[in-house]
Amino acid sequence: MTQDLVIALIYIAYAIGMLMTFGTLLTWVERKQAAVMSDRIGANRAYVRLPFTQIKLVWLGLFHGIADGIKMLVKEDFKPRTEDWLAYAIAPWVVFAPVLLVFAVVPFGGMLDPGRLFPSLADWFQGRTYPMQIAQLDAGLLVVFAFSGLAIIGSMLAGWASANKFSLLGGIRAGSQMISYELVMGLTVLGLILIYGTVDLGAMVQQQSGTVLGFLPAWGVVLQPFAAVLFLTAAIAENKRIPFDLPEAESELIAGYYTEYSAMKMGLFMFAEFIEIAIIGALFTTLFLGGYNLPYMNDKGFAFPGGTVIAMSHGAVVVTQIVVFLVKVMVMCSFQILIRWTLPRFRYDQVLKFAWKFLLPLSLANLTVTAVWVWAQQGGLR
Questions:
Q1: Which burial class, exposed, middle or buried, applies to 39 when counting CB atoms under 10 A from its CB (0-12, 13-18, 19+)?
Q2: Residue pLDDT, tens place only, 203-214
């Protein structure tokens, strides 16, 4: 139907615009947050001059991200002579596209009723309602891992296609590291699947609108605090950020799997990394922080313990949910950058040992304890 297509296009435009904005903004946040942590001023040189005046708009260095984008667009697109031209050309897109696609199954709001939001369009929409989610799939969480697995192929493909020993080593490192931590991520979310009984991300968020012990919000971080720590650690490692940036390791591999890339091809690799920071924040928010809702909030307003109910208009609920989701994601992005500028880098053997000998046993232990607890809650041996 035309109405469904219009809503889908609006959702897609919102998602792409939001992720692109996050990707650009986070380059500035990383510079300024690192400067604050290091007692420096940080990026403050790029500016825009108002026409016919001497007024320079610096805006705390916010234009540096725009300057970087222009610089990459106009740089020479250097290509090594010995590259596999097809694999070399498509590798950046194999890394970049899945990062965007993951957000298709992430709910960024509750139920949208366009007819109530815009009464003049009520007759056209005929009472149709739409979840604020591009693709409402029952197997949403499985799709997340399927798409994230494609990025592994892109990194390895870039390292191999460049015909450079440093790139090849970086690609091998990226593949082994990302596969290792992907496994840990999968095992940590199995506990949530056991508790909520679904892999539908929208249904998980709805169940987090309830309470635990009568007063605690039923957020994933309350039900699975240990899994939340494991998931975030593994997600940062899969994004290849410090202290897990060994596939790029400038000190020994120059730039790792994208050593031979320049101009906007290199820009795609770097932009994908920053967008993935936002994706990790969105997934963590959805799985462990109640998604787009505040504690005790649902699509009709607030229902507090004790029976107190605060009703909200549909428009107020929609705006609140979207803003709450964006704020939670931004807080998680800032926390990831905080970790990046706090911890020292591992050696590569330590990175893999940390995954297989430390995080993997802990995730299995967490899954076992969760399974026994769920079994006991459901009746155990009757």
A1: exposed
A2: 888 888 877 776
